[in-house]
Structure formats: C-alpha cells, structure tokens
Amino acid sequence: MIAREWKCRVPEVHSKGFTDYLYETGIKDSSATPGFLGAQIFRRSFDDKVELTLITYWDKLESIEAFAGNDISVARLYPEDAVYQLEPDLSVQHYEVIERQFITEHRE
User: Which domains can be identified in the chain, with CATH numbers?
Assistant: First the structure.
C-alpha cells in the first residue's frame, strides 16, 4: 500500500469552504480512480491560517499515476483553488505503508 501526502494552507475564514471543495475535487477524483483505497484529511490551526493535510491510500504507484499523471511527485491542483486563497504545496510525498492497523472499537 502507498500513502500519498499533500499539504496546503488557507486563511481560517476559508477553512470550511475549502474542505468542502476538497471533497468535491481531490477526494471525488481520487476515489473514482481504480486502485484508490481511502483517504484522510488532517487539520491544524496556526495564527490566522489552517493547514490541511490530505493523505490518500493506493494499491500501487501505477494507480497514483492514473490519477496524477506521469510525474506523480507533482501536486494535482484545480482551477477554483485561488478562490480560497490557497497556498498549496506544489509537490507531494509518497510512503510505503508498513503498518495499517486501526482499532474500530473503544477499549477501556
């Protein structure tokens, strides 16, 4: 399994709108690509901005290439990103997932 990590920053005022937009673009397009296994979005606030980290999970690098194009290290951006005053990372990181255990119930 491969994890693909992309980060961006948006002004706090655009956080909710951009997160919704991210679901409608990046998540929707990723999940429609064969080999997509799942996604997570992380959020953290600092000063007057929010940093969002999108991690998508894939079965193999070729599946990521089908989504991202030949150079999978380049971020896939969308035309309306500027509306949210997006400060995107222009590159992405890829990691081999070596542990993927999640606890699905609360243990006391």
Answer: 2-96 (3.30.70.100)
